[in-house]
Specification:
Helices cover 40% and strands 13% of the residues. It has 233 residues and is α/β, with parallel strands linked by helices. The chain has a single domain, classed as Rossmann fold (3-Layer(aba) Sandwich).
């Protein structure tokens, strides 16, 4: 089973981060074992905030192997950016399962909830042109600190999550299942992020757990997430 992580800044991470991708790799190692899965994708970098580009390989975890660092994530990239490139990425990576965390950047800077939901549908359609049996696990948008002071933005986040659930219901098929993961239990942007948006160690565990538990409950893949919810790695 070949996994492709797709996301924005919360997924790519920046220099020194562990990333939730690292937590998911630990989970896959523990539940599927070496040889039971692969992590694929065209990129492996972290975002370098000083350079303003994805140039860093300074992961917080030295035991994170190079082959497991692969992804399709970008700082400032959303459904708008990923929908046109996902077919090529799925084909090149021979991906079986897409773990997708997108939407916050779209709603914050690029598109409203209706347009963002339309891009979700395009993304799923395009991915299936490369692999008609590809599986998807989609994470709802977790509103960031901006939503606490920007009521219209908060409303757009809520509206998008409603539309995302409808897209999942409409597009889920036996041949190419689409799951909507649950928002991580007790996720708190004040304690699970380091800046009101990007996950710290406890947030990384909660995000990985949301994907892991969705796959285990729906498909019997792996097991329940057992990563420790800790304040420090």
């Amino acid at each position: 089973m070949r996994f492709l992580f797709v996301g924005d800044s919360m997924t790519i991470g920046c220099s020194g981060d562990f990333t939730w991708r690292y937590r998911m790799w630990q989970h896959l190692e523990a539940t599927l074992g070496a040889g039971g899965y692969a992590i694929t994708g065209p990129r492996d970098e972290l975002y370098d905030t000083e350079a303003g580009a994805p140039l860093s390989h300074a992961y917080g975890a030295p035991d994170f192997p190079a082959e497991a660092r692969r992804h399709l994530a970008g700082w400032g990239e959303g459904w708008l950016h990923m929908a046109p490139v996902i077919a090529g990425a799925v084909e090149a990576a021979r991906a079986d399962v897409l773990l997708v965390s997108l939407g916050l950047i779209d709603l914050g800077f690029y598109t409203d909830s209706e347009q963002t939901a339309a891009n979700v549908r395009q993304f799923i359609t395009q991915a299936r042109t490369a692999n008609p049996h590809v599986r998807f696990v989609l994470l709802p948008v977790i509103p960031n600190v901006r939503a606490e002071s920007d009521a219209p933005f908060a409303a757009e986040c809520d509206r998008f999550n409603t539309l995302l659930a409808k897209a999942v219901a409409d597009l889920d098929t036996p041949a190419s299942p689409v799951l909507l993961a649950s928002r991580p239990t007790d996720y708190d942007i004040h304690t699970d992020t380091y800046d009101g948006t990007h996950p710290g160690p406890s947030g990384e565990h909660r995000l990985a757990g949301a994907f892991a538990d969705a796959m285990h409950q729906a498909w019997g893949v792996g097991g329940p997430y057992a990563g420790a919810l800790v304040a420090a790695a």
